[in-house]
Design goal:
Blueprint lengths: L3 H4 L7 H9 L1 H10 L5 H13 L8 E6 L5 H6 L8 E5 L3 E4 L2 H5 L4 E3 L7 E3 L3 H7 L2 E10 L5 E3 L11 E4 L3 E5 L4 E5 L2 E10 L2
Parallel strand pairs: 5-10, 6-11
Antiparallel strand pairs: 1-6, 2-9, 3-8, 4-6, 7-8, 9-11, 10-11
Helix pairs in contact: 2-4
Length: 197
């Protein structure tokens, strides 16, 4: 059986790059999202991290990420019909987990989106339609073979997060019709997507 953490662990020679990144990940990712230049040290940290995550996935596997944005807004923003998939550019490094439950802990709450089709997974239509005002979003991402990434679980202080970091500059495809799932009393919309190679 395949083990993404064993098969994709970050190379020993890049451990210091990853540990340096974790101390300033918010700042570095903000620079990348905003297309800004950082200090020489910050730009070097970004280059080092890109190098650490340059090895491609050896096979296809799924990761999850708790979202701090509402994917349903992307269809409106990019003027794409609601029943079609949409491609999105992720300019920054993306932290993911091979465990769904971990990703749920990182998702932010948003108002329930209007006018999207959903699939109910153990959630009654009444709970979703009548009683839910807020939802959290999680992306289940199928990582294509060759996607640049690395597992950092073996060097992380938080090994139970089962973290895999995707390299910056990724293109992903997200499919419409998320699945609605109840997790510990909260309602989650689980979106499906793939990395685009």
């Amino acid at each position: 059986m395949s083990n993404p953490h064993q098969d994709h662990k970050v190379d020993n020679k890049y451990h210091s790059h990853v540990l340096n990144y974790t101390h300033q990940s918010y700042r570095l990712n903000d620079l990348l999202y905003n297309g800004e230049l950082g200090t020489d040290e910050e730009e070097q940290a970004i280059a080092n991290m890109r190098q650490a995550l340059s090895s491609g996935a050896k096979y296809e596997f799924d990761v999850f990420t708790g979202l701090k944005w509402d994917p349903s807004e992307m269809w409106y923003k990019h003027n794409v019909e609601a029943d079609r998939s949409i491609e999105i550019h992720l300019p920054a490094f993306t932290s993911t987990s091979t465990k769904f439950e971990v990703a749920c802990g990182f998702a932010r709450t948003f108002p329930k989106p209007d006018d999207i089709k959903v699939k109910l997974d153990g959630v009654s239509p009444r709970v979703y339609n009548d009683r839910t005002d807020d939802v959290c979003h999680v992306l289940r991402l199928t990582v294509a073979r060759g996607t640049p990434l690395a597992s950092v679980m073996h060097i992380s202080k938080h090994q139970k997060e089962y973290e895999v970091i995707l390299n910056s500059g990724m293109e992903i495809k997200i499919y419409p019709e998320p699945t609605v799932k109840s997790v510990d009393g909260s309602i989650f919309l689980i979106w499906n997507g793939t990395t685009v190679m």
